[in-house]
Fold:
Amino acid sequence: MFAKLLTMLLALGLMAGLLLVNRQRMYETVGERVRLHDEVERLKRRMQELKVRVAEATEPAEINDMISENKDDWKAIQVIRKRVTMANTRNKDVVGR
Structure:
């Protein structure tokens, strides 16, 4: 009888300990998520500030002057409108088929 009671107390103690460990890991995970979320928000704000600084530092007239000075360095991007179709499975150039 004493051995059964001792075994049951040890089992309950072990389960309580494991429950505490699991809860602590959950708190650490939530804390890490909060820290990462704050860092992402800080980086988004920094990116927005940099976009504003770039927009303030560049004016269309200045850009046009730079382009007119070095026309060879500034080439237009050609947009080619091509119809997108399904990849041919017999084509060996297609990766992943």
